[in-house]
Specification:
This protein is of the alpha/beta class. Helices cover 38% and strands 12% of the residues. It starts with a helix and ends with a helix. This is Ras-related protein Rab-32.
Length: 136
């Protein structure tokens, strides 16, 4: 079922709740599932960023430290990680910016299909008044 949600994804956030250790324990399962079902045209994994959400709430003592999260992300192929609070809008913009920057870096390597109808081609001639009136 997750393949449907991942279809044509070019980047991802994987989120865990700092107040619930079980959500941190599930990260590797989610990352593995993502990496097995969607890839870049080069065959590599799409950029994924780990979000440690609810940083506005008290953390459980068993949550990893910043250095442990750095190491965890490097070992598991995450581009970066951010402490976030969706409630208080903490680091949401920074995390999104980081993901978009990584997506754009990868887009430079995407193959461009000349006859792809889903892309906008700006070099075509503008519509004339006569052709505009034919729209329904």
């Amino acid at each position: 079922m997750t393949r449907v949600y991942y279809k044509e994804a070019v980047g991802a956030f994987i989120v865990f709740d700092v107040t619930r250790v079980s959500t941190f324990e599930a990260i590797t399962k989610w990352k593995s599932d993502l990496d097995s079902k969607v890839y870049l045209p080069s065959g590599g994994p799409i950029p994924a960023i780990l979000l440690a959400n609810k940083c506005d709430q008290k953390k459980e003592n068993s949550m990893p430290s910043s250095s442990q999260l750095d190491h965890f992300c490097k070992e598991n192929g995450f581009v970066a990680w951010f402490e976030t609070s969706a409630k208080d809008n903490v680091n949401i913009d920074d995390a999104s910016r980081c993901l978009v920057e990584n997506i754009l870096q990868n887009c430079k390597n995407f193959p461009i299909e000349e006859n792809d109808v889903s892309t906008v081609q700006l070099e075509k001639e503008p519509l004339t008044a006569e052709s505009k009136s034919l729209c329904c």
